[in-house]
Amino acid sequence: xxxxxxxxxxxxxxxxxxxxCSAGDGGTTEKAAEEAxxxxxxxxxxxxxxxxxxxxxxxxxxxxxxxxTRAWTHSGNFPSDIQCLTRCPDAVISAPVxxxxxxxxxxxxxxxxxxxxxxxxxAGRLDVHWSSGPENWxxxxxxxxxxxxxxxxxxxxxxxxxxxxxxxxxADGRSLAVSVATGEESAPRWSAYLFDVSGxxxxxxxxxxDHLPGSVGCLDPAADRAATVGEKPALVTLGSGRRVRDxxxxxxxxxxxxxxTVFATYAAGQGQQDTQSVQVTGNTGNRxxxxxxxxxxxxxxxxxxxxxxxxxxxxxxxxxxxxALSEVRAAGLxxxxxxxxxxxxxxxxxxRHRVVTAxxxxxxxx
Length: 366
Prior knowledge:
- The protein is mainly β.
- The chain has one helix at 3-10; strands at 12-14, 21-22, 36-38, 41-47, 50-55, 60-65, 70-75, 81-84, 91-95, 106-112, 115-121, 126-133, 136-141, 144-149, 153-156, 162-169, 175-183, 188-196, 206-212, 216-220, 225-228, 230-231, 234-237, 243-246, 250-256, 260-267, 275-282, 288-292, 300-302, 305-310, 313-317, 324-329, 332-335, 340-344, 350-358, 361-365.
- It is built from one helix and 36 strands.
């Protein structure tokens, strides 16, 4: 999880009233006064084996096993990125000089089996996008995309100066897309390179898509499909970058399962007329539903359901519409591969729930 993006997205939690309506069904969206609530804790990573939180006040990361027991904590280095290894809460933390001016070098910090391993990089820029351990990783190091496979390192020659980068892993954990922006700052050229990370090491990447409208935020390589985030987001084919469907004005994040894609969308207006919503789209056909949502805090896709926050609670919705608001209070969430969902309470504690599908609808179960 890229920490700069997450911190920017959820420093303030805007909580509008849930207002579900299916796109094109003529439904109306209820409006309510918005309330700003500060988020101290973030749920930054998670899988079926564990999860990781970040205390923004103390700038402390903590890794927990699925049963809630704490495996490790780390402070003293501000993270730009954190990724779980083969299973959480084992993780790698990126601590570049650009975010830690007092450091001489950028650091990659591995937390695994109760041990800490640190590697130094002379470059000011460092984002580790994937790793199975200290000898096997994929990262943006300085101006290059670089990978290590245990036997050595390789680097990718880019078509211009690197302006930005973003990593996104498929829901099944087998593929990693590293998006890179080159060219002019005002009109960057986004390209996505695909790594096979199904094993212990990642091999040389292939160019999956070029001239994208933004970075890849979520992907399903088996279906040759990805979604971009940022301005003018789009559903695209991974093989050619061809636009399949436009997704609005702006998207801050997305999640994708085999059948469903979920987007956090934002439409600029005047003052409190800005609209923040979640969009749940079927990957085949034209079914799309939208609902008002809390900004930030995360979202997820569990089979045919989109999972998100509204009114400070977990909610779920299929592409056919009909958002179901649960009684689970949450400031953040993380959907995992078995259909479970971690809910982060405002006090930083985490509880696990499940996404339930029945009669064409989606709900949050205990």
